[in-house]
Amino acid sequence: xxxxxxxxxxxxxxxxxxxxxxxxxxxxxxxxxxxxxxxxxxxxxxxxxxxxxxxxxxxxxxxxxxxxxxxxxxxxxxxxxxxxxxxxxxxxxxxxxxxxxxxxxxxxxxxxxxxxxxxxxxxxxxxxxxxxxxxxxxxxxxxxxxxxxxxxxxxxxxxxxxxxxxxxxxxxxxxxxxxxxxxxxxxxxxxxxxxxxxxxxxxxxxxxxxxxxxxxxxxxxxxxxxxxxxxxxxxxxxxxxxxxxxxxxxxxxxxxxxxxxxxxxxxxxxxxxxxxxxxxxxxxxxxxxxxxxxxxxxxxxxxxxxxxxxxxxxxxxxxxxxxxxxxxxxxxxxxxxxxxxxxxxxxxxxxxxxxxxxxxxxxxxxxxxxxxxxxxxxxxxxxxxxxxxxxxxxxxxxxxxxxxxxxxxxxxxxxxxxxxxxxxxxxxxxxxxxxxxxxxxxxxxxxxxxxxxxxxxxxxxxxxxxxx
Length: 468
Prior knowledge:
Layout: E1 10-14, H1 21-38, E2 43-48, H2 54-67, E3 71-75, H3 81-90, E4 95-99, E5 108-115, H4 123-131, H5 146-151, E6 155-158, H6 160-171, H7 174-179, E7 184-187, H8 194-200, E8 205-207, H9 228-236, E9 243-247, E10 254-257, E11 263-264, H10 266-280, E12 286-290, H11 296-304, E13 308-311, H12 315-324, E14 327-331, E15 337-339, H13 348-362, H14 366-377, E16 381-388, H15 391-402, E17 408-409, E18 412-413, E19 416-418, E20 423-426, E21 432-437, E22 443-450, H16 453-467
Parallel strand pairs: 2-3, 2-4, 3-6, 7-8, 7-9, 12-13, 12-14
Antiparallel strand pairs: 1-5, 4-5, 9-10, 10-11, 14-15, 16-22, 17-18, 19-20, 20-21, 21-22
Helix pairs in contact: 1-2, 1-4, 3-6, 10-11, 10-13
């Protein structure tokens, strides 16, 4: 059978094409062998999101692991990825497994691996698991009943949602959020965050909080073009809704809206988190961000005297720092953010709760809080356009970047270049553009920052005209 390749923190594939019961069992065999090699009495927490046949794939995983003598804690019903990560840490399990394809289209499912510390399994360990995946499944799955495993003490059901609710209640002033005169909205994008938010804040406004494994045919990624209905909900409320929170299919990424229905990007969310945690919560620590994140965050860190670190793109790199160092905030441009005092894991709901607590405690609107940050770092807008190119054109452009061929893009003179992961070209007036290839498809990602939205799009236009 074909070799199964892992990505950032696990495997993903199209359901019924490569994502089959047999292949999930193969991945489970590799995972079980890795656990046996690395732990004396291994145990694992398993959960699944809202995708098609999640329960069946989670039970398949449980059956294979049980055969190896691995103790299984299985979540009943759908759960978020952060719930599995938190459960792995609280249960002192060796590993967490999430049956999810996160923000990918509904035709996909996946198999994510979480370390015992409550965050993404580190890259070298993910590779070790992949190397142990056999060519075929040798377990007779039909002969194993989950009820029998439970009766034999090999499998226990675990209430990860309750564990998460308790953790939220212990770490936030939920009464202040529930009883404030501010009104909030939540869009689960038909994902796994829907039930827990109903439990935590039953009186807020909900959208797309139904069980729908097809996600209405849309990838549950919390970016503006996928959230236009949510944006409109806030806009027509004419100020009656103060802020909107959206999360992706497994609730580890965040999307945020102000009361006017305007999208607030991750750069601004990271700035707000750093500002609140340092200024109001009197916390400290290093800030670790992916290469595509705005340099404005570095400017805020300098203002507060915080150490700042840039990593390659991928939350696994940020998680590595969070596990080994004192990190206050770690974030990516794509909406994956983690903070101190929680787990070293992206968590869209947790970040939303921090922002909402900040708003109700201060009595200020989201726009007012952003303006306070602007007083330190200056106003800015960020835009991103993905160019769909032939692979040869993508490679030609990246070769030109590596050879220093671009000294200017139209009227924008390049002052300096950084190449941590892709290429960041800095211009005058705190403006910049970044060019980075997708590793999996013929796509070139281009990102720009300027003082205004028009300025950011003007940069992208001149860059695209120059490189094509």
